[in-house]
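note to self — DONT lose this again. spent like an hour looking for the file last time. sequence + predicted structure for the chain T wanted, 73 res
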Amino acid sequence: MVLEDTFDGDVDFLRRLNNKKPLKELNSPIFISSRKWEKTNIFLQAIKNWNFRRRWLKGESLKNIYSDYYKND
C-alpha cells in the first residue's frame, strides 16, 4: 500500500535521525504557504500529529489515521 509505505518510511527516517549525530543548520530559508497555517494553530497541529503517531504505534489502521488527518482539509 502506497500510504503505508510513505508513512512507515517517514517514521523510520525520523527514528534513524534520532540515533545519529546532531543535525547541522543549513543557513538557508524555508518557504511555506501561510495559507496552510491561517486557520490552524501550529501548537494544536503538533499535538494532533503526536496523537496520530501514537495511534500508529499502537497498531491502528493507517486508513483510519489517514482519513482523520484529511477530514478537515
